């Protein structure tokens, strides 16, 4: 008996599900090229977000060889659509939305029923922009894709090295934050906490976007600094990564 394949993790569903070539004379209901949701996700992460295949594999909870195969298939389909025209549809596959139940081939997307905790670096209602210097997290408990409870917890002065353990003690599954250093990323990965860095704005709104699969974030966001006791400068602004303290820099 064949072993069932593991779901690939997808963290943003496509906004557009069907594309028609400008010169296409294909009648409605004609043959279409079908791009699966996980094929779309590899294109989004590698070609759009700039991830390498190893990082993409980690994000999608799959092996690198599996991602390479999916990505190659997706690129071939995309090239065929560009050259031949016709229709390209994005649907189906074998995947799970971040924090939600696995979708089997042929199933409709349903809200997940998994209990999950989401933490956000927090200050004055906003996503605080430097993980290692956050003084509080807002932790959201979710069920069926909805927030059922939330609380703000003080880090009690915990620094970079201790924050991953701090979050693990609260059974956190997902962290949404602004800037974060490479060492902290590794600590979170070891703790089994999924990271969504480069987010900014209202904390409640970012969690709502995450649960809908529409969170805007940058997995390549990284904060480079020397952790001196007197503070640090990051991204050209004091007190925050990619922006001013407690907020995010808008272009």
Mind describing the biggest β-sheet? 6 strands, mixed
Helix content: 25-40%
Alpha-beta content class: alpha/beta
**Average pLDDT number:** 77
Global Rg: 20 Å
Judging from the principal axes of the Cα atoms, what is the shape? elongated
Low-confidence stretches: 104-113, 226-247
First-last Cα distance: 55 Å
Strand content: 15-25%
Topology, number of strands: 14
N to C succession of SSEs:
EEEHHHEEEEEEEHEHEHEE
- How many H/I helical runs? 6
Organism: Candidatus Onthocola gallistercoris
Domain Dinitrogenase iron-molybdenum cofactor biosynthesis: 124-211
Protein name: DUF134 domain-containing protein
Pfam family, one: DUF134
What features would you describe in this structure?
By secondary structure, the protein is an alpha/beta fold. The chain is 28% helix and 22% strand. It is built from six helices and 14 strands. Strands 7, 8, 9, 10, 11 and 12 form a six-stranded mixed β-sheet that branches. Strands 1-5-6 form a three-stranded mixed β-sheet, covered by helices on one side. Strand 5 and strand 6 (102-103) form a beta hairpin. The radius of gyration is 20 Å and the shape is elongated. Residues 104-113 and 226-247 have low confidence and may be disordered.
